Amino acid sequence: MTLEVALNSILDKMVIMIGHEGFFWPSQNTNTIGNWNLETAYKLKMQKEGGLLVFYGSEIEDKNITFPAGTHLVPVINSNPLSAADILKAAILNLHSASTA
User: What is the domain count for the chain?
Assistant: First the structure.
């Protein structure tokens, strides 16, 4: 799925989206990320509030993630609300920092 299709409901409110693969900057017609990847986390900068709901593909079977040394964006894919504490409790002993932005 293209980023334009996946983000259609917020394109006019979004400034830029950044991922490990690159960035998507709609106002400059620049996309170095490629297509939407359900297993990748992205950081968005919004100029106005907007909502995004993306449903496609099948459920991910292997839900384990191994992190090599370094900084990582972690996708949290869930249809139910979760607190950051619940998400991070398994990793909390080795976690140095976490951010909501």
Answer: 1
Range(s) of the domain holding residue 25: 1-101
The tokens describing 60, both together, are 């991910």
Nearest to 5 by CA among 43, 62, 55: 55
Question: How confident is the model over 49-83, as pLDDT tens digits?
Answer: 887 766 556 666 766 666 667 666 666 666 666 67
Q: Is the pTM of this model over 0.90?
A: no
Q: What are phi and psi of 24, to 5 degrees?
A: -125, 120
Torsions phi, psi for 64 (to 5 deg)? -90, 140
84: phi then psi, degrees, rounded to nearest 5: -60, -40
Question: How is residue 26 annotated by DSSP?
Answer: G
